[in-house]
C-alpha cells in the first residue's frame, strides 16, 4: 500500500479500511519469520560446532591411543609417524573450526537481538498509534452520526438544536472532523516511516544472513584445503619410503653373523665327489678296486636285474683327496 500510494498506483480493489492492520501484521509476521530463520541458522552452527569438536577429539584420541604399525622400521616408520602426527593436526583443525563456528553463532545471536531491540521500539510506537487511531476513529464516527442526525432533524426540530446548549454545534462537528483528519495524516506519516525502517532492517538482515552463509562455506572450504595440505605432507613422507632401505635396515639390525652355518653331510659328499672327479681328470683312470674284509662302501649302489648291491669305494689315500680339494679352494 505504501509504495503504491507514493507512486500513485493505488488499486481500487484493495482494502481502504482505516482501522485495518492487515498490512502491518504481515510486515511484523515477516520480520518475526526472518528472526526465526536467523535463530535456526544460529542453532545449526552450534550443532555443527558440537559435531566438529567431537570428531576432532575422536581423531586425536585415535592417533594417540590406537597403534598403527608400531613395529615398523626405518623409512616406513618415519612415514607412519608423519601420518599419525598429521591426523592429530587434522583433529586440532576440526576443534579450531568448532570454536570458529561458535563465534559465528554468537555474532548471529547478537545481530538478532540487536534488531529485536530496535524493532521493539517501533512496534511500541505503532501499537500506541493504532490504539489512538481506533479511539479517534470511534470519536469521529460518533461525531459524524450526530452530525447526520442533526441534519435530518434540522427541518423538523431547528429550534430544539438552538435550545440545547449542551449538544454539539455544526462548527464543533467540523472541528472534530478536522482534528480527525490531521490525526489520520500524522498516523500515515508515522506508519510510512515505520515501513521504511522495517524495510531497511529486513535488507540488513538478508544481507547479514547471506554473508554469514558465505563465510560459513568459506570456513568449511578452508578447513578442507588445510586438511589436504596435511595429507600432502603424508604423501611426501611416503614418497621418501624405500623398500630396499627398509629391508637392508632390518637385515643389518637382526643379522646373526657374516658366515654361513656348517655344511651338511650332503654338501660334504658333493664336495668329495667334485674332488674325486678333479683328481681322476688329472691322474687318469684308477685301477679296479678290490674289497677288503670288513670295509663298507660309500660310493653308491648299483642294481642288476632288480637286485641291489654295494659298490666298492676306491681306495685313495686321504692326502690325495685333500690336496686337489685344497688346491681347488685356493684357485
Task: Please describe the topology of this protein.
Elements lengths: L1 H6 L14 H44 L8 H81 L3 H6 L6 H70 L3 H12 L10 H19 L17 E4 L2 E4 L7 H13 L1
Antiparallel strand pairs: 1-2
Helix pairs in contact: 2-3, 2-5, 3-5, 7-8
In short:
With 331 residues, this protein is mainly alpha-helical. The chain has helices at 2-7, 22-65, 74-154, 158-163, 170-239, 243-254, 265-283, 318-330, and strands at 301-304, 307-310.
Strand order of the largest sheet: 1-2
User: In CATH, what is the class of the largest domain?
Assistant: Mainly Alpha
Note poorly predicted spans: 1-10, 295-313, 315-331
CATH architecture annotation of the largest domain? Up-down Bundle
CATH superfamily of the largest domain: Arfaptin homology (AH) domain/BAR domain
Question: What integer is the average pLDDT?
Answer: 73
Helical proportion, percent range: over 70%
How many H/I helices? 8
Dominant shape: rod-shaped
CATH topology term of the largest domain: Substrate Binding Domain Of Dnak, Chain:A, Domain 2
Proportion of strand residues: under 5%
Order of helices and strands: HHHHHHHEEH
Structural class, judged by helices and strands?
mainly alpha
Q: Outline the biggest β-sheet.
A: 2 strands, antiparallel
Roughly how many Å apart are the termini? 117 Å
* Estimated radius of gyration: 54 Å
Tell how many strands the DSSP assignment holds.
Answer: 2
Please give the domain count: 2
Amino acid at each position: 500500500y505504501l509504495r503504491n500510494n507514493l507512486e500513485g498506483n493505488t488499486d481500487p480493489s484493495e482494502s481502504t479500511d482505516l482501522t485495518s492492520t492487515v498490512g502491518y501484521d504481515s510486515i511484523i509476521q515477516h520480520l518475526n519469520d526472518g528472526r526465526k530463520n536467523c535463530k535456526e541458522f544460529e542453532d545449526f552452527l552450534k550443532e555443527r560446532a558440537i559435531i566438529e569438536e567431537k570428531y576432532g577429539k575422536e581423531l586425536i584420541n585415535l592417533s594417540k591411543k590406537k597403534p598403527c604399525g608400531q613395529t615398523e622400521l626405518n623409512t616406513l616408520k618415519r612415514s607412519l609417524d608423519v601420518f599419525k602426527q598429521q591426523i592429530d593436526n587434522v583433529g586440532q583443525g576440526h576443534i579450531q573450526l568448532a570454536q570458529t563456528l561458535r563465534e559465528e553463532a554468537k555474532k548471529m545471536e547478537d545481530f538478532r537481538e540487536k534488531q529485536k531491540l530496535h524493532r521493539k521500539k517501533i512496534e511500541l510506537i505503532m501499537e500506541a498509534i493504532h490504539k489512538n487511531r481506533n479511539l479517534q476513529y470511534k470519536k469521529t464516527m460518533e461525531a459524524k452520526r450526530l452530525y447526520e442526525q442533526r441534519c435530518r432533524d434540522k427541518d423538523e426540530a431547528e429550534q430544539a438544536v438552538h435550545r440545547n446548549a449542551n449538544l454539539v454545534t455544526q462548527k464543533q462537528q467540523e472541528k472534530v472532523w478536522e482534528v480527525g483528519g490531521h490525526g489520520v495524516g500524522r498516523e500515515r506519516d508515522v506508519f510510512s516511516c515505520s515501513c521504511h525502517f522495517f524495510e531497511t532492517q529486513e535488507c540488513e538482515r538478508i544481507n547479514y544472513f547471506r554473508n554469514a552463509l558465505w563465510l560459513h562455506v568459506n570456513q568449511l572450504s578452508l578447513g578442507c584445503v588445510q586438511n589436504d595440505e596435511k595429507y600432502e605432507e603424508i604423501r611426501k613422507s611416503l614418497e621418501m619410503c624405500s623398500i630396499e632401505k627398509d629391508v637392508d635396515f632390518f637385515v643389518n639390525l637382526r643379522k646373526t653373523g657374516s658366515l654361513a652355518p656348517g655344511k651338511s653331510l650332503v654338501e660334504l659328499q658333493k664336495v668329495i665327489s667334485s674332488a674325486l672327479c678333479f683328481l681322476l681328470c688329472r691322474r687318469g683312470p684308477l685301477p679296479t678296486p678290490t674289497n677288503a674284509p670288513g670295509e663298507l662302501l660309500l660310493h653308491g649302489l648299483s642294481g642288476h636285474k632288480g637286485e641291489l648291491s654295494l659298490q666298492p669305494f676306491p681306495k685313495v689315500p686321504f692326502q690325495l683327496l685333500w690336496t686337489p680339494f685344497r688346491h681347488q679352494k685356493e684357485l
